[in-house]
């Protein structure tokens, strides 16, 4: 006689867990009161189901979002450069006003004292650099 092969079919009991139940298990997990393995063992749930719950209900789990960090830093660099340009424009404006004042002062002195004044290029300018003839020692 032929031996017939017995097939065993295991029908897994399908259970439904309420949303409140799932949320409370995820909250316990998030607060560190329990682990995924412990939830699986105590409630007879598969690990994949618990991880799906965590993915769905945990406030700590977020889908990864790719952020462009350079965009912000480029914006910051641009703003810093714009600020520097503004400061330099203000400095140049003050220097031009000061130069205009000195020119008027020289013109007034020439008229008042009836002398001709020349601007000496060897004077130190207001920025601290001296304008000297490279041929002299």
UniProtKB/TrEMBL annotation:
GO molecular function: DNA binding; transposase activity
SUPFAM superfamilies named in the record: Homeodomain-like (SSF46689)
Stored Gene3D superfamilies: Winged helix-like DNA-binding domain superfamily/Winged helix DNA-binding domain (1.10.10.10)
Signal peptide from the UniProt entry: none
Any GO BP annotation: DNA transposition
Top-rank lineage group of the source organism: Bacteria
InterPro entries reported in the protein's UniProt record: Homeodomain-like_sf, Transposase_8, WH-like_DNA-bd_sf
Name of the protein: Transposase
């Amino acid at each position: 006689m032929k031996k017939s092969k017995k097939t065993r079919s295991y029908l897994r009991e399908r259970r439904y867990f309420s949303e409140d139940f799932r949320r409370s298990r995820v909250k316990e997990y998030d607060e560190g009161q329990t682990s995924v393995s412990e939830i699986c063992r105590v409630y007879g749930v598969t690990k994949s189901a618990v991880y799906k719950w965590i993915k769905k209900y945990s406030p700590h789990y977020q889908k990864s979002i790719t952020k462009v960090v350079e965009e912000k830093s480029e914006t910051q660099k641009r703003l810093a450069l714009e600020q520097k340009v503004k400061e330099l424009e203000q400095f140049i404006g003050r220097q031009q006003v000061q130069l205009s004042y000195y020119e008027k002062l020289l013109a007034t002195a020439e008229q008042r004292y009836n002398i001709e004044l020349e601007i000496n290029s060897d004077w130190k300018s207001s920025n601290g650099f001296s304008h000297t003839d490279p041929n002299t020692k």
